[in-house]
């Protein structure tokens, strides 16, 4: 059920924020922290991707604070949601707030329209600074996310730095399994498998699944 959207009337100059996280206690804690700031106002919350689309459309926030891991237990749902929200609302600022610290995820989030990326144990001052920066249409990353992104972007092609889940999917590719079969075996959706396969091929600079397996074998990844 989509949570009710609070009163949309906010004073001029305030930053309107929607919280997207599947844990109610996390959303409650964030709301309590953020609303101590006079210029920050939480205008909506969502626990799922579907709820987020509805709440953002109704509440018209300046910033969405988005956790990548939602109901599916996989960060891909959050990435897909990021891309959908920024496509539907071009002026929207998405700030990823998550427990996942991976350079590839940071880069992928930016490719999908996010303006910033911070990890959940960031201190309150840094989080507030990031929200205000994103609201000004600037980019913002905490120091660890920025370092992970730079490291990922500077990694040579001989070191593709596949994630643990990508390596698992890659091994299934090597056994000749289809996307549907891989999804059934790993208990993830076929769409999620396609997302991982696309990332694997990009990181290995491969143009086909067979080439990806071949390149991975040369790098002793499988």
Question: Could you characterize the architecture of this molecule?
Answer:
- The chain has 222 residues and is α/β, with parallel strands linked by helices.
- The chain folds into 2 domains: 15-152, Response regulator (Rossmann fold, 3-Layer(aba) Sandwich); 164-219, Arc Repressor Mutant, subunit A, CATH 1.10.10.10.
- Helices cover 50% and strands 13% of the residues.
- It contains 10 helices and 6 strands.
- The protein has helices spanning 24-34, 49-59, 76-88, 103-111, 124-135, 143-154, 164-174, 179-186, 190-203, 209-218; strands at 15-20, 40-46, 63-66, 93-98, 116-119, 140-141.
- Strands 2-1-3-4-5-6 form a 6-stranded parallel beta sheet, sandwiched between helices.
- Strand 1, helix 1 and strand 2 form a beta-alpha-beta unit.
- The radius of gyration is 19 Å and the shape is elongated.
- Residues 1-11 have low confidence and may be disordered.
Features:
222 residues; alpha/beta; Rossmann fold; Arc Repressor Mutant, subunit A; 2 domains; 6-stranded parallel β-sheet; disordered N terminus; Response regulator transcription factor
């Amino acid at each position: 059920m989509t949570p009710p959207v609070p009163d949309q009337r906010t004073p001029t100059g305030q930053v309107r924020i929607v919280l997207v996280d599947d844990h109610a206690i996390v959303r409650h804690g964030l709301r309590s922290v953020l609303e101590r700031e006079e210029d920050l106002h939480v205008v909506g919350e969502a626990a799922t991707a579907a709820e987020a689309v509805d709440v953002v459309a109704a509440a018209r926030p300046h910033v969405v604070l988005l956790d990548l891991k939602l109901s599916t237990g996989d960060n891909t749902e959050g990435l897909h949601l990021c891309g959908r929200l920024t496509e539907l609302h071009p002026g929207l600022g998405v700030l990823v707030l998550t427990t996942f610290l991976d350079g590839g995820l940071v880069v992928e989030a930016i490719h999908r329209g996010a303006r910033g990326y911070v990890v959940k144990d960031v201190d309150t001052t840094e989080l507030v600074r990031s929200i205000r920066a994103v609201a000004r249409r600037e980019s913002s990353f905490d120091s660890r996310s920025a370092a992970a992104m730079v490291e990922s972007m500077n990694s040579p092609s001989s070191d593709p730095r596949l994630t643990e889940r990508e390596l698992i999917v890659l091994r299934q590719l090597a056994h000749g399994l289809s996307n549907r079969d891989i999804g059934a075996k790993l208990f993830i959706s076929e769409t999620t498998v396609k997302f991982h396969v696309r990332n694997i091929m990009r990181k290995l600079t491969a143009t086909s699944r067979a080439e990806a397996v071949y390149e991975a074998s040369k790098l002793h990844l499988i």
